[in-house]
Amino acid sequence: xxxxxxxxxxxxxxxxxxxxxxxxxxxxxxxxxxxxxxxxxxxxxxxxxxxxxxxxxxxxxxxxxxxxxxxxxxxxxxxxxxxxxxxxxxxxxxxxxxxxxxxxxxxxxxxxxxxxxxxxxxxxxxxxxxxxxxxxxxxxxxxxxxxxxxxxxxxxxxxxxxxxxxxxxxxxxxxxxxxxxxxxxxxxxxxxxxxxxxxxxxxxxxxxxxxxxxxxxxxxxxxxxxxxxxxxxxxxxxxxxxxxxxxxxxxxxxxxxxxxxxxxxxxxxxxxxxxxxxxxxxxxxxxxxxxxxxxxxxxxxxxxxxxxxxxxxxxxxxxxxxxxxxxxxxxxxxxxxxxxxxxxxx
Length: 346
Ligand code: PEP
Ligand code: MN
Prior knowledge:
This protein is an alpha/beta fold.
């Protein structure tokens, strides 16, 4: 960390900066220049509270030389993290995983049918929310615990793994008992108390990028999970808020290579929430695989017109089957392969 002093800062102000750095337990290296003095902070272990320095008299700028996150960074661990799920499915290795299913679990018939058809198309993980974070309190809120039971039944019938969202501390307990992956949704990406609980859960976590979160904030939220001891973390780009109303969100495809450079954690893409429009989901899913995403999460419903949430961005079953065929070819071109459900494919 570099503390840049204002032009004309007094010697006393520089000394004060040095004293505060030393008080914090670090070493200070003053570097007088022709225009201004800078003070280097040495021994930064990633936990320096910059705000103590930013407000000091004579300080113009505090420049972070190293990243504020630690355990999630590539510098900390250079090889890719491979998250092992049940049934020999891995995320972050050479295989591209597909998570597919409805936005919400609505009924036994709906989720079992959805599970069968996404499996037939080649998905390995079934998605579906039992608890739904809805903007309106009057919108369908999910079935709650009965929804989890239906997901468990769908797994029994199809062998698909289950990914479902937990919205609060109780929910994490219930979800961790049933699901193979605990989803922390965009709205909770910075719910730090929830992240700490998820960090102590004994299940992999899918952490979705908040709709107004920077990539650095996403990585800092992931750091909470690792700091609590959960290293099985999968990140998810799901679109961010923009000014253009042409799509629901701005799907940030660049986040995929950016995260791969900064972190060893796998990152998947959710073009369903990323675009909000069914016909845009398909090209963006293809693009995400081409960009190196470790997986895709796509909403699929046996009858999207009847969906209780997110129908407009939900693929018809035949569209999903076609998308699966396409991403197999794309994965092949970049030296990867799409994971196949047990007993299906080569
Ligand atoms: C979802 O996956 O259904 C969901 C609510 O996603 P997000 O948190 O990205 O909005
Ligand atoms: Mn949804």
